[in-house]
Amino acid sequence: MATKKNEGDFHVALNGIKLSDTSRNRIQAGIQKVVMDELAGYYPNPDDDDKPHRHHFGDGVIVVPPKWWWGFILRPILQNEVDNIKGLQEKINSQQYGG
Amino acid sequence: MAVDSENKMCPSATCHTGALLLGVVQGDKTVALLSTPMTVTEDFVEKAVKAGEPEKRLRFAGKCAKNGCSQWTGSRCGVIDTALNYMQQAIDNTPLPECSIRPQCRWFSQTGSDACKVCPYIITDIRKKQ
């Protein structure tokens, strides 16, 4: 049985067994296939602490993602998005100091 | 740092056959980098796409496309420069994560170990530039 050394390290001890190259390659390929099959469908462990990190990129580059998406997205901000933000800021400012 | 521009690997490639699986996005939005490189197969791509948006859940490394990539500025990759501009705080006192492609990595070749310190905070965006 494979033993779990650390959280993500699994070891299969085959010490003392003289394996042929074919056999060794087959074992290696088999382990890789199982791992890849599992990771293909990987989503974060729901038991993990899901608090976001406090690293923020600056203006014009990072877009805070919508709720359905749980990562940061790195892309250039689009001109129409800049215009929308400016429009919103102007609206807020005019409400704040308008009367 | 001088950039050896030939045969560099992009550490934020799309999920495609022949790419390397570089890391896994965790619940805290950081990327756990795998110290053992694993090659992406056609079967893996099929399963990962079926499970939903692999680039948002996993990080892949592939050949740097240079001019074929919208992030290429003409002489270097713009992603890591942008990330470093805004994540200076992450660089200080951060140990280098284990990485399977560091010697061939485009970002490492451009900016050295600073790139490795912000790399786990970057998630691939596959949308086309508009």
General description of the model:
The complex is a heterodimer of chains A (99) and B (130). With 99 residues, chain A is mainly α. In chain A, 39% of the residues lie in helices and 8% in strands. Chain A is built from two helices and four strands. In chain A, the strands form two sheets. A two-stranded antiparallel sheet of chain A has the order 1-2. Chain A has a two-stranded antiparallel sheet with strand order 3-4. In chain A, a hairpin with a 5-residue loop joins β1 and β2. The relative contact order of chain A is 0.06. Residues 50-73 of chain A have low confidence and may be disordered. Chain B has 130 residues and is an alpha+beta fold. Chain B has one domain (9-121). Chain B contains six helices and four strands; from the N terminus they run βββααβαααα. In chain B, strands 1-4-2-3 form a four-stranded antiparallel sheet. In chain B, β2 (20-25) and β3 (31-39) form a beta hairpin. The chains are: A mainly alpha (99), B alpha+beta (130). Chains A and B meet through α1 and β4 of A and β2, α1, α2 and α3 of B.
List the helices and strands and how they pair.
The complex is a heterodimer of chains A (99) and B (130).
Chain A: E1 3-4, E2 10-11, H1 21-40, E3 62-63, E4 73-74, H2 79-97
Chain B: E1 9-13, E2 20-25, E3 31-39, H1 42-51, H2 54-57, E4 58-63, H3 78-86, H4 88-91, H5 106-111, H6 113-118
Antiparallel strand pairs in B: 1-4, 2-3, 2-4
Strand content of chain B: 15-25%
Biggest β-sheet: strands ordered side by side in the sheet of chain A: 1-2
The largest pleated sheet of chain B is described as: 4 strands, antiparallel
Q: Report the radius of gyration of chain B as a whole number of Å.
A: 14 Å
Portion in helices of chain B: 25-40%
Low-confidence spans of chain B = none
How many helices of chain B? The count is 6
Distance between the termini of chain B: 31 Å
Number of strands of chain A: 4
Q: Please outline the major beta sheet of chain A.
A: 2 strands, antiparallel
Biggest interface, chains and residue tallies? A-B, 34 and 35 residues
As residue ranges, the low-confidence spans of chain A are 50-73
Total helix count of chain A?
Answer: 2
Strand content of chain A: 5-15%
Helix-strand makeup class of chain A: mainly alpha
Structural class by secondary-structure content of chain B: alpha+beta
